[in-house]
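FORM 7B: Structural annotation worksheet

SECTION A. Query
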Amino acid sequence: MARKRSRAELFRRWLFLAAGLLIMALGVACSIQADLGTSPVSSLPYVLSRITPLSVGTTTILVNSGLVLLQILILRRRYDPLQLLQLPVAVAFGYLTDLALWAVDFLQPAAYWQQWLLCLAGILLVGVGVSFEVTAGVATMAGEGVVLAICQVAPVKFGAMKVGVDVSLVAAACVLSLLFLGQVAGVREGTVAAALLVGQVARRMNRRLEPLDRRLLSGAC
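SECTION B. Predicted structure
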């Protein structure tokens, strides 16, 4: 039987998730400022912000809300209403992304190597933020929620489906940017680097956060 969490523990976990969302938002903002391509999950919101008057944060909220709706359509009666917590998480992440973009607006890399430094910093931050989200264990991002939903109805492993969803988002971003901007926007070598490295950073960080999960978040001695 799963251990029931106290209110104090839940508060600590939600606070930890909020910290993770802020770190992820800073990572996304750094990737955008680097101009070498955003992470796969952020590619579609970024392109939508380029072809509409909406901010990246607002399009992030809209895309993630659409992914929540997709989960409901996939699972139907099997959908757990508790997963609707993804919506306030998406809203918070969207606003934090706009705040982070404002905060790092002064970062204007001129040389290609400077772009890569900022891009790698963004990848590191996103990976650390994802690890915080996983360690908090109270709500998932909508992108991961879609992967989990598909895995419930299809005999596909999480890793393979995660790649499939990421590729689909990048493909949609490429098609939309070609149709409305006449060029591919937000998808470059940095996107490939993010796809390869974010998961590695998150896994390494997860191991470092395990003691924190046991002692601080769970209140264990």
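SECTION C. Observations
Residues 189-217 form the longest helix (29 residues). The chain has one domain: 7-216.

SECTION D. Sign-off
Analyst initials: ____
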